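In the design runs reported in the main text, the only information available to the sequence generator was the tokenized backbone. The following block is the verbatim input for one such run; it is reproduced so that readers can re-run the procedure and compare outputs position by position.
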């Protein structure tokens, strides 16, 4: 099979309209580069596959019959890709013209780069977190107590090596993935990028953040549809990350600390549910999500509560 310079792999789930914009932007962003585009559709029910076939016939469409999640979906795309560089982007990401060419040039100039990310902004032009330090217990406590909003850590102003870059927009060298392996498919969604980047760093590769290159991320187009389930999934994968990469002692310490933090959140949202009528629907979803996450800290599988939480998605 003939190789190409870059394989752009787009994972989509019920994002037809923004996926159309994403694919249009990819065409402009990859001009002059030997590129293939692979769209992995995670069992969308909004007509996304038909739109891709009709409007972007040159893109290769991979239709999955059930939602396989972020890790499995991207792995399927990677396994079918022919590129020497593998560019993973969310379907709600809009690239600027010549983005792919600039990213390829950066990777070619730095043979030590196993992966790279760019500066992400939301639809209003506000900065989003596109790179960060590896999660630690202190990092998690800071975010649970919202202290990160008081202590703003500005992203790098110049290209430099970072701990990890978000999987929403991540360019990887094929050689790197052959060295460290694909995404761990136990991570359905959330923290899979941190796990992969940790393995990339351990293998001796560097991960770069390049703020001179920018992309717009319509963050939440997918996950806001599943607010409650996403909270539960995030905690589940947080525990998995610590158990996989940091060892059982740290993982147990994390569970104890998160248990108390979640109990505090549970009390706050329960009070809001009881006292603020206009927040009642959202508070009810949050209470279910945090209660289910408390069960996770105890090593239980909250199947009944996850189902109940899913039933609320249309109301929130």
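Verbatim output:
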């Amino acid at each position: 099979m003939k190789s190409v310079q870059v394989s752009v792999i787009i994972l989509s789930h019920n994002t037809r309209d923004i996926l159309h914009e994403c694919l249009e932007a990819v065409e402009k962003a990859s001009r002059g580069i030997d590129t293939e585009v692979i769209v992995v559709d995670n069992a969308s029910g909004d007509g996304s596959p038909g739109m891709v076939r009709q409007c972007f016939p040159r893109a290769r469409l991979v239709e999955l019959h059930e939602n396989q999640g972020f890790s499995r979906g991207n792995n399927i795309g990677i396994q079918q890709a022919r590129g020497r560089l593998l560019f993973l982007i969310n379907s709600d990401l809009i690239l600027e013209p010549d983005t792919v060419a600039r990213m390829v040039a950066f990777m070619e100039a730095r043979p030590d780069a196993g992966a790279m990310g760019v500066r992400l902004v939301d639809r209003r032009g506000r900065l989003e977190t596109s790179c960060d330090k590896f999660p630690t217990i202190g990092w998690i406590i800071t975010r649970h107590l919202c202290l990160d909003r008081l202590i703003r850590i500005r992203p790098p102003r110049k290209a430099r090596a970072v701990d990890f870059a978000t999987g929403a927009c991540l360019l990887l060298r094929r050689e790197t993935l052959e060295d460290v392996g694909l995404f761990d498919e136990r991570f359905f969604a959330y923290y899979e990028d941190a796990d992969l980047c940790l393995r990339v760093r351990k293998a001796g590769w560097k991960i770069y953040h390049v703020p001179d290159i920018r992309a717009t991320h319509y963050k939440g187009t997918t996950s806001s549809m599943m607010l409650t389930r996403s909270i539960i999934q995030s905690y589940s994968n947080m525990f998995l990350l610590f158990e996989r990469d940091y060892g059982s002692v740290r993982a147990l310490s994390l569970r104890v600390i998160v248990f108390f933090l979640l109990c505090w959140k549970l009390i706050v949202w329960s009070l809001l549910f009881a006292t603020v009528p206009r927040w009642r629907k959202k508070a009810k979803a949050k209470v279910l999500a945090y209660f289910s996450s408390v069960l996770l800290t105890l090593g239980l599988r909250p199947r009944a509560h996850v189902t109940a939480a899913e039933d609320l998605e249309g109301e929130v």
